[in-house]
Design brief:
alpha/beta; 2 helices; 117 residues; 2,3-Dihydroxybiphenyl 1,2-Dioxygenase, domain 1
């Protein structure tokens, strides 16, 4: 298992980025519109951590891992077959890949498939 994208949703983006930078010696880039204005930094071993503000008033702060998978449709179908509920169907983000979100056991989970070049 490998986390490809770790999404942190918070109302205190700059403070969280500063704390992570200080603790881990990383630098966050500018907001990326394709990732909901998340500021991102590289994870050791590959992938990204993104810190962004809620996209709408009802969105609560959350930490959501996006697990790297080879076939997002099959992985999402398996999650649903085992009791997960789709919160966001698979959708492509240009230059990043395809993501989906499902809820299971009170936890928000993400799946990520790299774009085929």
């Amino acid at each position: 298992m490998r986390i490809h994208y770790l999404e942190i949703v918070t109302r205190e983006v700059e403070a969280v980025c500063a704390a992570y930078s200080a603790a881990n010696g990383v630098e966050f880039g500018p907001p990326d519109a394709r990732l909901g204005q998340a500021r991102t930094a590289e994870l050791h071993g590959g992938g990204l951590v993104g810190v962004r503000a809620p996209l709408h008033e009802a969105e609560e702060p959350v930490t959501r891992p996006y697990w790297l998978v080879d076939d997002i449709e099959a992985a999402l179908a398996e999650a649903v077959a085992r009791g997960g509920v789709v919160a966001h169907p698979a959708m492509e983000i240009p230059e990043h890949g395809i993501f989906a979100i499902y809820f299971h056991g009170g936890i928000q989970n993400g799946l990520w498939q790299l774009s085929k070049a």
